[in-house]
Amino acid sequence: MLTKFGPRLGRFTSSFFTAALLASASSVVAAKECWLDLYDQADYQGSHVRVKGPAELPSLKSLNGEDWSNRIESLIVGPDAEVYAFKQENFEDTPQGPVYHENELQAWGEKDIASAQDLKISFGPGTKQHHLGDLNFHRNINSLKVQCRR
Predict the structure, then answer these.
(1) Which run of H or E residues covers position 110?
(2) Angle value at C-alpha 53, between 124 and 129, nearest 5 degrees
């Protein structure tokens, strides 16, 4: 009786093992696609560093042995990564220093009030930002989070 079920169990176990191995291999592949490329010049030029995710960098003062604080001008996000960039260290997103008063700024004719207050920004998978000045984050990033989607 045991020999009758033995081959079936063996095939089931083998199929299960193969499926588990493939699932494990695909998660390794996905992890390879979770990264962030940083450049110190516009249009992906100049010095470059890759941050492999997942990663939380409360400071960029010693990223790959160099100070990348207030240095980033362009970036590319890997296909399985989500990135959160902060103007302040330690992922701070509350204003420090003078408070921006929306009504007063409008009275003075300021049109881009929101960008004066933005202290963090996010980038989705596959994002290519050729110049962070377009988003008011030009050379103004001091901490980063890279999260992996898979």
Answers:
(1) none
(2) 35
Domain assignment of residue 93, given as a range: 34-148
Rounded distance between C-alpha atoms, residue 87 and residue 15, angstroms: 50
The tens digit of pLDDT for each residue in 100-149 reads: 555 665 676 655 544 445 899 999 999 999 999 988 898 999 999 999 99
Residue 5 and residue 70 in one domain: no
C-beta separation of 96 from 117 below 8 A: no
Kindly report the pTM of this predicted structure: 0.68
Distance CA 81, CA 122 (A): 11
Q: Give the other-Cβ count within 10 Å of 49's Cβ.
A: 17
- 40 and 112 in a single domain? The answer is yes
What would the mean pLDDT of 74-81 be, rounded to a whole number? 98
Q: What is the CA radius of gyration of the chain?
A: 23
